[in-house]
Amino acid sequence: MPKTKDYSMREMIIDQCLGSGQEYTREELQEEVNRQLESRDMLPIRSRTTILQDLQEMNEKFYKMYGRYGIVSENRNRRRYYRYRNDVQSIYNRELTAEEIGKLQEVRRLLQGFKVLPHFDWLDEMSARLDQNIISGQRDIASFESGTTKDARFFLPLFNAIANRQVVTIDYQRFGMEPKQRILHPYYLKQYRLRWYLLARIDQKEGVCVFALDRILSLSINNQVAYMDAGMSFAHYFDDIVGVSHPDGGKVEHVTLWVDSWLENYLRTSPIHISQKLESMGDDGCRVSLDVIVNYELEQELIFYAEHLSVLSPSHLQERLITRIRKQLEGYEKEVK
To answer: What pTM, to 2 d.p., does this model score?
Structure first.
């Protein structure tokens, strides 16, 4: 595959040319590619072999999808002409417009630069989504889950605000409460259980707070307030917790659990936390230990396993779960009556 960084954009431009039904020489394709690259403030290509490599890569992609090559060529008057087969209009899914394809390709190229950062593993999934939507229009390859429409609405503005070090003003409504306006210094975006969360500092206050994107009602850039750095790194911010929330004054505790044999097998392949250790206790189950800060998300995770798990320590976590389970049971008993 061509290694130059602007390959995706060149591929899109070549597809537009050949999709017109016309035929082009290598020189003509290179001239059009360079014209459009320069219009986007991108460097033109100089090597004559670059376009030939691009055509070969596009043909290989097409062959993998359809079992035949989509680009054909012939020599005439000592020149080689390239075109799509008569029944081929594009290697892309034409449910997307050419402009949309171009934007998606640019987004994918931009986001690849973030893959080296901690907690950006989700970019591999996003890249796969883009490839499926752009390239493989004939069949679905995988199914992806996504967050809410409000997540999608505010993700990119917040992403840009963090990248550009801009303060934002939001109207935020917690469940069961009236909306409240907040001036925030945004620092980090984190996804957990299909919801996106913003980690930010409230203006003129200390500490990092968590805001769910689907609870934001409106958002605007605030140019009246100077941006304040986080004063910390988020590279290991989530190492000691499950989920996204750091309780005020929370400290790492040694949590011990008892799980039955069914859940033991599951947790061996899908641990609750990176600190998890399992000590097998025979056929009935095992003891599990975690070194974490106890927060709401951990409680939710433990309750999820229902009768397959019980908390041995610390006592305050055990009592908290007992209280929650009793309230849940009372709700069921009322419904039965």
So the answer is: 0.60
